[in-house]
Amino acid sequence: MQIAQRMRPLQANVFADMDRAKAKARSAGKPIVDLSLGSSDLPTPPHVLEAIAAALPDPATHGYCLFSGTQDFRQAAARWYSDKFGVPVNPETEVLLLIGSQEGTAHLPLAVLNPGDFALLMDPGYPSHAGGVYLANGQIYPMPLLAENGFLPRFKEIPGAVLEQSRLMVLSYPHNPTTATASLSFWQEAVAFCQRHNLVLAHDFPYADLTFTGKPAVSALQADRDKTCTIEFFTMSKSYNMGGFRVGYAIGNADLIAALRQVKASVDFNQYPGIQRGAIAALSGPQDTVKHMISTFRQRRDAAVQALDRVGWTVPLPEATMYIWARLPEPWSERSKEFCLRLVEQTGVALAPGVGFGKAGEGYVRMALVHPPEVLEAAIARAASLLF
Predict the structure, then answer these.
(1) pTM more than 0.90
(2) Cis status of the peptide bond prior to 59, with omega within 30 of 0
(3) Could you please report the per-residue DSSP string of 256-284?
(4) Which fold has domain 47-284?
């Protein structure tokens, strides 16, 4: 049987290798401490679960849900965004419900790229961004994110020949995996660059709330208030601990929303209305659980950074996200995958190898803070036994 050539770049997957290594360690009797996945261990807020539970017996929630059936959600999302970032949003033309924001970031290239067009992606970056470009038969130009540049891309280094064939730039701040944040002035520069070169600017924005500065992260639309070229993707997974419910949304340029809606209509319907009601309750209801989530991850961040420092593995203090991005010392500085495979095999501690996020991620590992401080401290001590 012949498989489409577009599938070839998707076959190599470091995280699939890690999953097999975790399964092998479990079968050998090793208890696994999994810090390789950014899946929050915190519970979904009770009022969200109550809204979903109340919807289950309602026959009106049991059928297919078309675009018109998402109106209440779109209105709640528009209000949430406008209240938080001060940018007006039209819920009819500038908001689209998604079955998880990853659906949107993976489908957007189908809406904006012709075969052979370039997408400018972050390196390191979230793997699904590349997957969507490959499925659209596009080409990828990786923008290296280096520590000396604050893990921000340098737009002036993108070759002119690449820019002539480029149609899309994907950014994501606060950034997974490096934990870097971006200022309003950076976003103004990014928007001006995309306007000048006729690029769609897609901002994957799952960590809007998960910052330790006392205020939300900067939205790209705060630099593109007229929504000339920008679309932003949000998720309920991080702020509201709803990862398994698969609900997110896009906000931005009306033409981009309409094009993404066309792609979506060819692939699926919309999320179950009961889950939409839970998401509305999350966006419109009390936000103390969000504050508790931020406080929890700040406490874990502090404990993990201190534990790393005690074993001689010094890392910068992250300002955002639920991760630590740690540079590997010699002799592992160019062997992140090998280190992570050996670590889980010998100790049961699973980290994400930096090379899995792109070539520029080699030499790092990502640690997800998805366990209480005492578990993180014990895991770091075990990792140090292999490092030093």
Answers:
(1) yes
(2) no
(3) HHHHHHHHHHHH-----HHHHHHHHHHHH
(4) Aspartate Aminotransferase; domain 2 (3.40.640)
Cα separation, 112 vs 194, whole angstroms: 14
Asked whether the domain spanning 47-284 has the same topology as the one spanning 13-38+288-387, the reply is no
Does domain 13-38+288-387 match CATH 2.130.10.10? no
Q: List the chain pLDDT tens, one digit each, 388 residues.
A: 888 888 887 776 777 888 898 999 899 888 999 999 888 999 999 999 999 999 999 999 999 999 999 999 999 999 999 999 999 999 999 999 999 999 999 999 999 999 999 999 999 999 889 999 999 999 999 999 999 999 999 999 999 999 999 999 999 999 999 999 999 999 999 999 999 999 999 999 999 999 998 888 999 999 999 999 999 999 999 999 999 999 999 999 999 999 999 999 999 899 999 999 999 999 999 999 999 999 999 999 999 999 999 999 999 999 999 999 999 998 988 999 999 999 999 999 999 999 999 999 999 999 999 999 999 999 999 999 988 8
Contact present, 283 and 355 (Cβ < 8 Å): no
Between the alpha carbon of residue 362 and those of residues 144, 314, 359, 381, the distances in Å are 11, 18, 6, 22
Domain ranges of the chain: 13-38+288-387, 47-284
| DSSP one-letter code for 351 | -
> Within 13 A of 65's CA, how many CA atoms are on the CB side?
20
